[in-house]
Amino acid sequence: MNPEVIYKYFPDLSQNQREQIEKLGPLYRDWNSRINVISRKDTDSFYLHHVLHSLAIAKFIAEFLPELQAKMTDSKSSIKVMDVGCGGGFPGIPLAIIYPQAQFLLVDSIGKKIKVAQAVADAIGLKNVTTLHSRAEEVKQKFDLVVSRAVTSLDNFIPWVKGKYTEGILYLQGGNLDEEIAQAEKKCRIRPSAIFQKEITDWFCDEYFQEKKVLFIK
Q1: Are 22 and 97 in contact (CB under 8 A)?
Q2: Which domain holds residue 36?
Q3: pLDDT of 118-143, one tens digit each?
Q4: In the chain, fewer beta carbons within 10 Å around the N or the C end?
Q5: For residues 126 and 181, is the Cβ–Cβ distance under 8 A?
Q6: What is the CATH classification number for the domain harbouring 50?
Q7: Going by C-beta distance under 8 Å and a sequence separation of 6 or more, which residues neighbour residue 89?
Q8: Are 162 and 98 in contact, with CB atoms under 8 Å apart?
Q9: Which tens digits make up the pLDDT trace of 6-51?
């Protein structure tokens, strides 16, 4: 559980951000011994499989959404992000570390996982994270951005958050997604140019990320 893989791709983190990232490993190992938050086989690769994977969204924002990046890093930022189906806090908690100026709401329908996400956020001093035990469809607020990591197929996910965001959805998903995207476009009546996919290996060279992508739904 070595955080150095994070610093390899994010060398400009502040000392506070590094300390927060370094605390994640022991915290999740402890919680995972009590509640199955992440796969047991992933424990030794925690930073690669969970933290760095989550931060592919930050790479996408920096490269393709520069105006949003500027807003999210502004000291007067009012950007609001909802993480749907966050489980124990992914991708929301790593993103909240990278973007301390933005406000994150982490939502999950499983209460024990939300408990872990809130406990971890509190333990590392994240002031920009709140959690909610709820289904995404029941959330009444509106956000600039919705993020999520492979909680369901796109055609199921998009209706959950319809009308709840202004900038778009950033979704972590793996495999050949052409058929899934086509199904979402048809079922959700989305024009083809509104869904863009980016290979994570364009940023992270690790073999784990082969066939893993960031999807952006405008």
Answers
A1: no
A2: 4-217
A3: 999 999 999 999 999 999 999 999 99
A4: C
A5: no
A6: 3.40.50.150
A7: 83, 106, 116, 117, 120, 121
A8: no
A9: 999 999 999 999 999 999 999 999 999 998 888 877 788 999 999 9
